Amino acid sequence: MSRVGKKPISVPDGVEVTVKGNVVTVKGPKGELRREVNPAIKIEFKDGEVTVARPNDSKPYRALHGLYRSLLANMVVGVTKAFVKKLEIVGVGYKGEMKNNRLTMQLGYSHPIVFVPPEGVEIVTEGGTSLSVSGIDKELVGQVAAKIRSFRPPEPYKGKGVKYADEQIRRKAGKTAA
User: Average pLDDT, stretch 30-37?
Assistant: First the structure.
């Protein structure tokens, strides 16, 4: 059995889980998430716990077993407390600000970069050089944070660019005078 897949997901008070066919809906104080599950994977909700079961021990079902358990656990956590990814903008003249639900960033290009976050994701700027991406869908929050980072990934010589707050940049030595 999968170590991850066989653990039951405890559902806290105020969270409502509905399983209809192969669609799982999780409602909580922060919002509602819905996910379609492979029809072969069985999901049961009773006594405040969600359990995930697979039909047999073949390799594809073993992989899906742990995957869907993790996805459902993330849904339960997301509707109770939002997921947050913090980003930092490093570089002279590099900055970002939110205006009219648009993130406008100056990242050393000849033009500003304008990014409109998708529905369900909130971006907050602090001091112009740090960003906070938050939302109830872990997958979407990570995707938006990765997209913002991709506009100017950190470079190894001076460390300039957009990086995750907990990311360590491996620095390289520059040219040396002969």
Answer: 93
Q: How many CB atoms lie within 10 A of CB 65?
A: 24
Interval 46-83: pLDDT, tens: 888 999 998 988 888 888 998 999 999 999 999 999 99
What distance in Å separates the CA atoms of residue 65 and residue 61, rounded to the nearest whole number? 6
* CATH for 9-80, options being 3.90.930.12, 3.40.50.300, 2.40.10.10, 3.30.43.10: 3.90.930.12
pLDDT for position 2: 61
